[in-house]
Amino acid sequence: MSPASTGASTIVGAASSVPSSLPSADSRMAPGGPGYRRMSFALFLAGVATFALLYSTQALLPLISGDFGVAASEASWTVAAATGGLALFVLPMSALSERYGRRTVMTASLAVAVAVGLLVPLAPSLGSLVVLRAVQGAALAGLPASATAYLAEEVRPRALVTAIGLFVAGNSVGGMSGRVITGWVAQEWGWRAAVAVIGVLAVGCAIAFRLLLPAPRHFTPGSLRPGALVRTVRGHLADPLLCRLYAIGALFMTVFGGVYTVIGYRLTEAPFSLPQGVVGSIFLVYLVGTVSASTAGRLVGRLGRRGALYLAGGTTAAGLLLSLADSLALVLLGLVLITAGFFAGHAVASSAVSKTATTGRAQASALYQSAYYIGSSAGSTVGAIAFHAGGWAGTVGVGVLAVLGVVTITVFGSRAARREALVAA
To answer: Cβ atoms within 10 A of the Cβ of 148, count?
Structure first.
């Protein structure tokens, strides 16, 4: 996942950075049009680099635990620190993107994150590793909100969900490839060599991204005025629909963060006792997320936004329950369903934020990303604690509660929409 969230066109520090005369939708990029494929591939690579770096230690937690002599709940901080850093800095970074441009901020963010990624293998202690990961997450904060803001400004509205879905698909490929590569490399040469390889992979993605991404045509820079930023954020937090979407993103990511932080411990222990390379290969199920995220637009077209969220939540819950079995085949099927449901739900919610926010879209996107990665940090930490206390069933219990939260919020939103329709009628 990559992550992806929502679009942009306001000034951070001003009420809005939308130009006085909006560009015609026909002047923006559309599938098959000039620059669209380059843009899609560039942002796909940015998504690959973001998720590969952000979760580079997740599949390696059992090895990190053994190297530093710590429990799962302590090693999980190497994941939670990165996602927490991203959650804290995504709003300030979105502000910088309003002033200095989406492409500039994304390029700088990737450069810093890649540089830190090359230092991560040299960490002498768990504490220093956690600090480096927090810095890396903070640097990566410039990617998600800026990317979706760029898309909202440069892509035709009807193609927005599909374009964001492709960016989220890049997240899934990055998460999958990072974990698979680290699993096999770590099995032969240890976790430090594994994260070093991810750093080198990210260098290549960052260079290709900068060379391929078309220069923005519809961006209007704004000034950095904290007062206006506060007013914009306050306005978004006062919008009930946006707040529901933020909560849905956080809850979906709580499930995903908890499951994929702990699954390595479960599969390396009895009754499965799988080697590290095979455990890393389990993350190939991320390819399912690539498909479900990229088809989110069609899903919404057929079922509506709330119908798509119900389907995503139900699919995720079914996967959680299946994963309780002591059959490896059923556990894998459960992971497939969890992954498909999560990426579909995330793509639907994040694109809905982009459509809902008519002003301050970069900040709306940033708030979604902040909630999303707070959910990731919470899921990683709470899921590991639950696993320590009650085994895999404890982690599944946390996930089921989060899915129930998604369904409850969606039901509430459906009723609110009906009331609004009756009042309007």
So the answer is: 35
Note whether 8 and 148 are within 8 A (CB).
yes
Closest C-alpha among 174, 200, 324 to residue 263: 324
- C-alpha distances in Å from residue 335, one per residue of 128, 233, 393: 32, 36, 14
Phi and psi for 155 in degrees, rounded to 5?
A: -110, 145
Instruction: Give the model's pLDDT for residue 114.
Output: 95
Number of residues that this document lists for the chain: 425
Give every CB contact of residue 295 below 8 A, 6+ residues apart in sequence: 165, 344
Instruction: Quote the pLDDT of residue 19.
Output: 36
- pLDDT value for 53: 93
Are 97 and 8 contacting, i.e. CB atoms less than 8 angstroms apart?
A: yes
Tally helices (H) and strands (E) across the chain. Answer: 17, 0
Closest CA to 320 of 221, 375, 239, 402: 402
Angstrom CA distances, 18 to 23, 220, 354, stand at 10, 7, 14
Residue boundaries of the structural domains of the chain: 27-214+224-424
The model's pTM is: 0.75
CB 271 within 8 A of CB 16: no
Q: What is the C-alpha to C-alpha distance for residues 19 and 11, in angstroms, rounded to an integer?
A: 10
Helix intervals (H) in 18-101: 36-54, 61-68, 72-75, 77-100
List the CATH code of the domain at 27-214+224-424. Answer: 1.20.1250.20
Q: Are 17 and 149 in contact (CB under 8 A)?
A: no
Q: How far is CA 26 from CA 31, 137, 158, in A?
A: 12, 36, 11
Regions of the chain short of the pLDDT cut 50? 1-23, 25
